[in-house]
Amino acid sequence: MGDPKGFLKTARETPRRRPVDVRITDWREVYEPFAAERTERQAARCMDCGIPFCHNGCPLGNLIPEWNDLVYRGDWAGAADRLHATNNFPEFTGRLCPAPCESACVLGITDSRGNTGEPVTIKQVEVEIIDRAWADGGVVPLVPRTRTGFTVAVVGSGPAGLAAAQQLTRAGHQVTVFERDDAVGGLLRYGIPEFKMEKRHLDRRLAQMEAEGTRFAAGVPVDSKAQLDGFDAVVLAGGARVARDLPVPGRDLSGVYQAMEFLPLANRHGADAPVSAAGKHVVIIGGGDTGADCLGTAHRQGAASVTQLEIMPRPPKARAENQPWPTYPMIFRVSSAHEEGGDRVYAVSTTKFVGDAGGAVRALRLTEVAFEGGRFAPVPGTERELPCDLAFLAMGFTGAERPGLLSDLGVEFDARGNVARDARYQTTVPGVFVAGDMGRGQSLIVWAIAEGRSAASHVDQYLRALPRPALPAPVAPTARPLV
Ligand SMILES: Cc1cc2nc3c(=O)[nH]c(=O)nc-3n(C[C@H](O)[C@H](O)[C@H](O)COP(=O)(O)OP(=O)(O)OC[C@H]3O[C@@H](n4cnc5c(N)ncnc54)[C@H](O)[C@@H]3O)c2cc1C
Ligand code: SF4
User: Which of 121, 144, 183, 453 could form a disulfide with 172 if both were Cys (CB 3.0 to 4.6 A apart)?
Assistant: First the structure.
């Protein structure tokens, strides 16, 4: 433990966000630089608890107290080493993770629910370690010394597929990652906006992977099992891309899109995207992170107004009784996109899209709802209309796409509609494994990386017929967040 009184002397501090009026004129990340000395002081707040609950909060089992101590002592290279021991891509999680580790930090407990404490800025320390390692030339290709002669196909290049590929390549297998989009990265590339993570971070990591020997085949959809003939093992990592729809009158009007019809275009074309919010009244249906990404994007494109609708009531500011420390609580959060403007409306449900004479949406009808008898019921007399030239559905995803590869392979699905797997991440088809959202359902990047690492461990064991795994497997397929 670095400084035994660190948490008493230093308050929690995170980097400032760039001024709103400046940052919505560009697509760059929103945070200002954070000086190394300040990071070292923040790391010194870590108490190196006897039982570091943050380890359990992080699906990767990141060695948080170890790298906090190394940062406090100024050993940034040592800290990067310990960070990479459990996480292939800390520059992704350090920017994008909602940091369940911080909700589990012991410094968060100052009352029976863990409400008012100030946890260590774990995520911020993480991103500073890895950014500095890149800047100092400390992140280099780790080329395997021996080759096994086995070949592995990874289908899908999101964080799960990339983590699996890097682990398997480094173990000496010849890995090819197939991606149907024109560029590699999955949701990191075309879902998550640039202002949350600039794509240069992804490209830099992909260059490292290529130098290590991973092959990438972008623009290649794998639609049949015949395309996988000749590979000794397969990892399915195609995500959970079937979006939940809203079957209300007017759904087919022009101007009503799924969020994932909008965000990839914005990621490709920015303000010149063919579907643009410029000058429009935008309504986003869904109060989660995908909705917030639409919000930040719409503002950058110059929307006239943006309203985000959520069927659930507004969450409390502090932990609820049934979500005590160290769980990740449902509380009212203000993301950078929310700070940039727009209205958030809670406990409402859309009843109809209203069109103009040309078949384009011009308004949205909604009603307030109350949760009664296990369902959301409309509150009589609360129906009203919002101007709406562009609507985005951001209501989550229901599972993997079944037509094409999955049906041709004949893999089975679990009760939730995800690709079924056993305790070793193997599907019902021998030699075919599954990792990430495709097996878990819609989740987080940190879980996708943890699953990719774990699946890789089992693939390696399967290929080399090892009695026990040689690679780390941080999570079982059945592991779930602490709730
Ligand atoms: C808009 C949005 C924002 C998000 N923001 C965050 C965030 O800030 N933080 C966070 O932790 N999580 C976030 N998430 C969730 C996170 O992005 C996902 O949980 C994660 O990307 C899942 O990784 P994955 O590798 O399983 O799949 P994906 O990232 O979905 O990648 C799957 C890839 O497989 C490809 N593919 C599918 N089928 C085939 C095929 N047959 N042949 C070839 N390629 C195929 C797809 O094109 C895709 O590129 C967000 C999700 C969305 C939709
Ligand atoms: S990956 Fe997420 S949960 Fe793990 S240490 Fe980083 S911010 Fe915390």
Answer: 144
In a domain, 70, yes or no: yes
| 317 and 346 part of one domain | yes
Q: Is 228 in the pocket of ligand 1 (CB under 6 A)?
A: no
| Domain count along the chain | 3
pLDDT at 482: 82
> Which ligand 2 atom minimizes the distance to the CA of 97?
2
Look at residue 113 and tell me whether its pLDDT is greater than 70: no
**Domain boundary, last residue among 365, 395, 425:** 395
The mean pLDDT of 192-221, rounded to a whole number, is 98
Alpha carbon nearest to ligand 1 atom 30, residue: 239
Q: Is the CB of 451 under 6 A from ligand 1?
A: no
Q: Give dist(CA 385, CA 366) in Å, integer.
A: 6
Q: How far is the CA of 147 from the centre of ligand 1 (A)?
A: 30
CB 25 within 8 A of CB 93: no
Start-to-end Cα distance in the chain: 29
Residue 251 identity: R
In the chain, DSSP finds a helix count (H) and a strand count (E) of 18, 16
Nearest CA to ligand 1 atom 5: 192
Residue 473 lies in a domain: no
For residues 370 and 286, membership in a common domain is answered with yes
348 neighbors 366 (Cβ within 8 angstroms): yes
pLDDT digits 0-9 by tens, 270-291: 889 999 999 999 999 999 999 9
Spacing, Cα 456 to ligand 2 middle (Å): 20
456 lines ligand 2 (CB under 6 A): no
97 C-beta closer than 6 A to ligand 1: yes
User: For residue 389, what are the domain limits?
Assistant: 245-395
- Domain end (from 355, 375, 395): 395
What is the CATH classification number for the domain harbouring 179?
3.50.50.60
Statement to judge: residues 420 and 292 lie in one domain:
no
